[in-house]
Design goal:
Blueprint (H helix, E strand, L loop, with lengths): L5 H43 L5 H9 L8
Protein name: Antitoxin
């Protein structure tokens, strides 16, 4: 069994701590994004029943020719 010098073990422990902190930070950001997405989905679900008239507008807009945009 090889014993590493103290300087090497200390630096590797620092890297592990930084690595763990990065993993935790990414997980927290992912959880925040998920919570925001859940909130947005709830808002859209509540609004969709009020805005059923937008379906007619979407059909109308889909039928408009946009050849002049090329």
């Amino acid at each position: 069994m090889m014993i590493l010098p103290r300087s090497r073990t200390t630096s590797s422990e620092g890297v592990k701590r930084k690595g763990r902190a990065a993993v935790v930070a990414r997980a927290l950001k992912r959880e925040q994004r998920r919570n925001l997405a859940d909130r947005d989905a709830a808002i859209l679900a509540a609004a969709s029943c009020k805005e059923a008239d937008l379906e007619g507008f979407a059909d109308f807009a889909a039928g408009i020719s946009m050849n002049d945009l090329d």
